Description:
The chain is α/β, with parallel strands linked by helices. The protein has 9 helices and 8 strands.
Amino acid sequence: MDYLQWRHVFKIDPAKEISDEDLERVCESGTDVILVGGTDGVTLDNVLDILVRVRRFSVPIALEISNLESVTPGYDYYFIPSVLNSRDTKWVKDLHHQAIKEFGDIMVWEELVAEGYCVLNPDCKVAQVTGAETDLSEDDVIAYARMAEKYFKLPIFYMEYSGTYGEAALVASVKDVLEETKLFYGGGITSAEQAAEMAKAADTVVVGNIIYEDLQAALKTVEAVKSVML
Ligand SMILES: CC(C)=CCC/C(C)=C/CC/C(C)=C/CC/C(C)=C/CC/C(C)=C/CC/C(C)=C/CC/C(C)=C/COP(=O)(O)OP(=O)(O)O
Ligand SMILES: O=P(O)(O)OC[C@@H](O)CO
Ligand SMILES: [Mg+2]
């Protein structure tokens, strides 16, 4: 259950190249976890490759499942997204039903962590793949957050702006209504200042693409997030 305390997450996309040296700096950065996930190009080979390379370090590692073919044992946690604002039930519960039908007998349920995603950037890959309805008012987003917490009892509500920096005021409004469910924010963080701003609004801040674009800037987000007390 230590994911309930995470403040900073580095998301590694297994479909993207990263050198051993850069990966070591990410793993030794003081981040709380390496979350491995991406919308496309995720294969058993690249998921295993990252697992083996990250396991040399003491940081926890979690797999965010995007397809069933790439799931392998050995991760500390398996994060399972359900895109609550998808128009297609496939991404909300159908793939999940298929997975549980196939593997239900052998699943280690304690390792599975369900995430209620609300995708808010219409141009990102995950919005396009899942057919997410991103034209949402503040009331709509708050209703999804409450649905995640009060109705489905999900441990995590994830405001996903993948690729673009989101609205801190909206993130703060959602945080105000959540009592137990943890609020994850991810998307477009490129500086320590942005990371600190979102760390004031969300329980957990996820930093992804900037790892591949400007590693120095990415590393600075760890301290920026950790220095904010909620
Ligand atoms: C061996 C073992 C341990 C067995 C475990 C048993 C098992 C199989 C458990 C699975 C249980 C289960 C219920 C699985 C669900 C399966 C499934 C496929 C669900 C669908 C998940 C889903 C909605 C995926 C959609 C895509 C998504 C939300 C991905 C999250 C990652 C993300 C948004 C990354 C952003 O990066 P990207 O979009 O790639 O951005 P770039 O443009 O920067 O690349
Ligand atoms: O890659 P970025 O834009 O930092 O987003 C992080 C994460 O929320 C993606 O799922
Ligand atoms: Mg990707």
